[in-house]
């Protein structure tokens, strides 16, 4: 049973655009049909932009705390203010980065705030509720196609201990985000070492192989053949703070 | 340009087995041909087993330190001794886990030591030099097929901040492990936010979608269509301790 990852090119997405509608049109133009079980991976960038999560930096008034962190990090104090607005907790800060826990519970650099693929003088926040965004896109795609689908809203996060970014799921609908294999047996009948698999993150990283933030402009990928449809939310992937030895 | 991930079934691998030879035979039996640019992902489990990295626990004499950590964690003191033997540094320990930096520089639970898919009374260490293992398998596969290939030795690691394991590359040959995109531009001509992509880890996570540690017994996957051939080692993915805010 093979897995396929099909790239889907979209026009530049603007505030108010209907992402599901754009995906359906692009599928038609690129002569692709969705199949039962397909997982549609969408970069958070276009979801956030469509949802109007871009901010004009001139409208942001940095607080004293934002100015202090801007000095530590060398970042624009207005961007720092946006990061603080989106953060529940600041975990670490250094040269050009602030690692926070976002309002959603994700631990990432700069609260996922992005100035690439955004016009000068503006910044883009993460979607407000990416699990909900995923659900809405899934429903619209399922309704139009009659297929049973999954949707993942993906971002790229850096990591502790390892260099480079990988794909992560910040929103999910229609798939098992965290696969629980406890109780399953290995080839010799012994219990498995790895008992929970972050399936949604593996799918986001797989999609990362065809998607790109650069001038290639491929914000969507269809992941076919995974058999992961089910119930799950990206929030299932958040490790509770009290069980995280690197946060105590 | 789509990406495909093809599972490859292998017989149970034993010490002294020739992994590349087994892969070639399995390709033939399953009527698959390798193509230029294919990345062959191999689980570290079969590489380590073939390389004789299994240890008889009865031959391990736990030190006082191992006995102390065994009490803290509830682990077998002999397994703890093996973990300490494989570790440069212990970062954290708790109920049934010890997070260490391995001799290779990887930060992971229990030094990657595994008792699943290993006979009772034995434990399996990570390959001694997985980059070298990848190189040897690649050379044998390239020689037999005449194709230009990449090889990734993959494991599953847990993570800070997020639940569930994902695929990681602990050995690489013939591919760019860490893709540097600094200087590239986005759709609007601005610099990219994400500048280094852990391509080899994305490939390992993608392969994870078809591979399994369970009774399915699929220890190899062919990842086709990625255009990532080049020079790189899994060691390129290790974040230097002094640049890691969660280790200072």
Any overview of this molecule?
The structure is a homodimer. The first copy, chain A, has 6 helices and 12 strands. In chain A, the strands form 4 sheets. The first copy, chain A, has a 5-stranded mixed beta sheet. In chain A, strands 4-5-6 form a 3-stranded antiparallel beta sheet. Chain A has a two-stranded antiparallel sheet with strand order 3-7. Chain A has 2 domains: about 5-50 and about 125-240, 60s Ribosomal Protein L30, Chain: A; about 55-125, CofE-like domain (CofE-like fold, Alpha-Beta Complex), CATH 3.90.1660. Chain A is an alpha+beta fold. Chain A is globular, with a radius of gyration of 19 Å. The mean pLDDT of chain A is about 95. Strand 1 of chain A pairs antiparallel with strand 1 (about 5-10) of chain B.
Output the keywords.
homodimer, 248 residues, alpha+beta, 2 domains, five-stranded mixed β-sheet, three-stranded antiparallel β-sheet, 12 strands, 26% helix, 24% strand, globular
Instruction: Give the CATH topology of the largest domain in chain A.
Output: 60s Ribosomal Protein L30, Chain: A
Quaternary structure type: homodimer
Biggest sheet layout of chain A:
5 strands, mixed
Distance between the termini of chain A: 42 Å
Shape of chain A: globular
Count of distinct strands of chain A: 12
Number of domains of chain A: 2
The portion of residues forming beta strands of chain A comes to 15-25%
Note the total helix count of chain A.
6
Main β-sheet, spatial strand arrangement of chain A: 1-12-2-8-9
Order of helices and strands of chain A: EHEHEHHEEEEHEEEEHE
Kindly report the name of the CATH homologous superfamily of the largest domain in chain A.
Answer: CofE-like
Greatest interface by residues involved: A-B, 71 and 71 residues
Q: Indicate the radius of gyration of chain A in whole angstroms.
A: 19 Å
């Amino acid at each position: 049973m093979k897995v396929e990852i099909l790239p889907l090119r979209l026009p530049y997405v603007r505030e108010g655009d209907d992402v599901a509608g754009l995906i359906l049109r692009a599928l038609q133009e690129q002569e692709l049909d969705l199949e039962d079980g397909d997982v549609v991976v969408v970069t958070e960038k276009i979801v956030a932009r469509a949802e109007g999560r871009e901010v004009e930096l001139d409208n942001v008034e940095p607080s004293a705390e934002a100015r202090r962190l801007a000095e530590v990090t060398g970042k624009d104090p207005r961007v720092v203010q946006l990061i603080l607005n989106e953060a529940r907790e600041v975990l670490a800060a250094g040269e050009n980065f602030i690692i926070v826990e976002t309002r959603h519970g994700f631990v990432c650099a700069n609260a996922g705030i992005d100035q690439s693929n955004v016009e000068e003088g503006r910044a883009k926040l993460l979607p407000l509720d990416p699990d909900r965004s995923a659900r809405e896109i899934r429903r619209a795609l399922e309704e139009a196609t009659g297929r049973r689908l999954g949707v993942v809203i993906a971002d790229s996060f850096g990591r502790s201990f390892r260099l480079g970014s990988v794909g992560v799921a910040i929103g999910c609908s229609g798939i098992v985000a965290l696969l629980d294999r406890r109780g399953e047996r290995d080839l010799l009948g012994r219990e498995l070492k790895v008992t929970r698999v972050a399936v949604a993150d593996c799918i986001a990283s797989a999609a990362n192989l065809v998607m790109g933030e650069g001038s290639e402009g491929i914000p969507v990928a269809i992941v076919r053949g995974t058999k992961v449809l089910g119930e799950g939310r990206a929030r299932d992937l958040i490790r509770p703070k009290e069980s995280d030895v690197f946060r105590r």
